[in-house]
Write a structure and sequence with these properties.
mainly alpha; Lysozyme; 2 domains; two-stranded parallel sheet
Length: about 260
């Protein structure tokens, strides 16, 4: 989980870093390791205190009057980091990494340069037993091993986040899943239903041969959508009292079949 800074603390660090040309992420990483981002942190075993755990001597050297004030502590820490970077760049022949800047903050620029320049020597012989023991080192560690322990920890690969001023909003309700696409190939075409035969009783009453009339009714059925075909009514016998109408319909159908 990334360590969160209070907004005023993060603002103080970033402003100081910008003021002196220091990487703000590297400066926040130093504060993260030294105090957990707590400007009121105090080491009961030494004079170290504040956001960057300045001891009395270094605080005096950089004119830090109130080491528990985030703005003052950040300003002094940015100037210290700038000076350490200048010394290490001459030793290394390049700009130091964020982890190397942290090592210099912990051991001083001179101590960090010696550790990096003598990786095979014992760390206690380079910076002293207290400097190794009080910073989580082993008495048998080489200078390179001890330096790498803190260079790796001081890396800015870990995320650094601002303390949120309000709890995060609950995630929105996810959209319902879409219906799966229809695979047309998996649905075979339905056979076309045969058209109903015209009622023979009606044709007989009209004097029309059923075999000849069938193509006309079939063609009429093809022109109508399958689902819209009306139900065929039961055949009705033409009334004997209407010979003129019967003759007219019979003549009409015969002319359509020509």
């Amino acid at each position: 989980m990334p360590m969160a800074f209070q907004p005023n603390v993060q603002q103080a660090i970033m402003q100081a870093a910008s003021r002196y040309g220091v990487d703000p992420a590297a400066l926040m990483r130093i504060a993260q390791i030294e105090s957990g981002g707590n400007p009121n942190a105090k080491n009961p075993k030494s004079s170290a205190g504040g956001l960057f755990q300045f001891i009395d001597g270094t605080a005096k050297q950089y004119g830090l009057e109130n080491r528990f004030d985030p703005a003052q502590a950040s300003d002094a820490a940015a100037r210290l980091a700038r000076d350490n970077a200048s010394i290490l760049s001459r030793t290394l022949g390049r700009d130091p990494s964020a982890g190397e800047l942290y090592l210099a903050h912990q051991q001083g620029a001179g101590g960090a340069a010696k550790l990096l320049g003598n990786p095979g020597a014992r760390a206690v012989d380079i910076v002293g037993a207290d400097a190794v023991r009080l910073n989580g080192g082993d008495m048998d560690m080489t200078a390179g091993e001890f330096a790498n322990k803190w260079i790796n920890k001081g890396s800015i690969g870990s995320q650094i986040a601002a303390q949120p001023s309000s709890p995060p909003q609950a995630p929105g309700t996810p959209a319902p899943p879409l219906d799966p696409p229809i695979n047309v190939a998996s649905h075979p075409a339905q056979p076309i239903q045969s058209q109903p035969e015209p009622p023979s009783g009606l044709l007989s009453a009209l004097g029309v041969d059923a075999a000849q009339a069938n193509p006309i009714f079939a063609a009429m059925g093809q022109m109508m959508p399958e689902q819209q075909q009306p139900q065929m009514m039961q055949p009705m016998q033409a009334p004997q009292s209407m010979p003129a109408l019967t003759d007219y319909i019979s003549q009409f159908l015969k002319t359509r079949m020509v």
